[in-house]
Write the structure tokens for this entry.
Amino acid sequence: MKILGIESSCDETAAAIVEDGYRLLSNVVASSMDLHAQYGGVVPEIAARSHIEVVDGVIQQALDEADCAWDDIDAIAVTYGAGLGGSLLIGVLTARTLAITKGKPLYAINHVEGHVYANFLTEVKKSPVQSAGSEQSELGEEQGRHERSKVSPEEGLAPPGKGGNSLSDYRLPSRQPAFPVLALIVSGGHSQLALFRDHFDYTLLGQTQDDAIGEAFDKVAKILGLPYPGGPSVGKKALDGNPTAFKLPKSKMSEKYDFSFSGIKTAVLRVAQEQIGETFAFPSKDIPARLDEAQKADIAASFQRVAVETVVDKTMLAYNEFQPASVVIAGGVAASPELRKQLAERLPITIEYTDPRLCTDNGAMIATLGCFHMKLGRLMADPHSLDIKPNLSM
Ligand code: KG4
Ligand code: ZN
């Protein structure tokens, strides 16, 4: 079973082909991130326009790199929410058109659920030589090796900032997560803890009541004058800083698995203003020019430690209460080395992380979840009427 996944909920136009819910055949991501960087965040109109320009090419590249013709594709899976309305529309309308014209079943995918399924990919496409060896056919069975893939040379559409298209260097978990799965979903739009008893059977334990953790990283980057997206740039700056230089607050929530990140963001702003000897009325846009590199590094390191500790604390609380068989992290912030380090130190079970390129938005996670929709006979979407749901929740 080969599924084409299409993702366009934010600033990444992405398409991928996944086989049987665990084998990655191609993963193409074109990002308009560079266009947004000068504004310090995603500009919805620019993102939508850029999706229109590249979506056809991205899908064709995903088919080419997977060595697939349309006849080989069993279904199309597309993100229909949550996300930016204009961005979602491009992916959904493209998927609907292709489903009709190519005669393929269509599955509507929840973006946040999709993030979790990036962790179910355990293999990349075999090269012709390797595929002569052992065969694996059952969904989710016997996935123990990292296969190397040979992909066609990059042409045209190089995905900016994503480090090329070759699958051969993807580091994937050795096996799929066992249920019950505790999932920490941390991205630019979401901070959630969910307990999956099985596919499509989960409980949302808690979520952010204001900013998402990725959003906090992005805003702190702006205060420090570091480039967008803030996650990687704050993480990099933090390497030179003292993580205990500043005391920053962890929000106390009435619901024990809920999060809040607006308090720490404001606390960072106050620390920065104090460091340059100004009042709290001092405009944040003028702060970066007044902070020296050591101050920036200390603020970045202190913020990163506390923000990550906040989500790790809640993950540990949930782990101890529910004793899941496995824990996964998902979403852009799951690429954070600091998060990976803290979790690995504190969890009593081994946690296998997926490749950082599968943590940020991609089509592979959408295609993977699409495989399970198809395999488990879930309801198909109507290609004549599927609508976007910008505010879709879990
Ligand atoms: O999942 P994603 O690509 O888009 C959303 O669905 O929101 O997540 C983007 C977020 C951004 O806030 C970005 O700053 C953060 O993920 N991010 C990171 C890292 N890479 C991306 N945060 C921490 N460390 C990283 N390496
Ligand atoms: Zn996302």
Remarks:
- The radius of gyration is 21 Å.
- The first helix runs from residue 33 to 37.
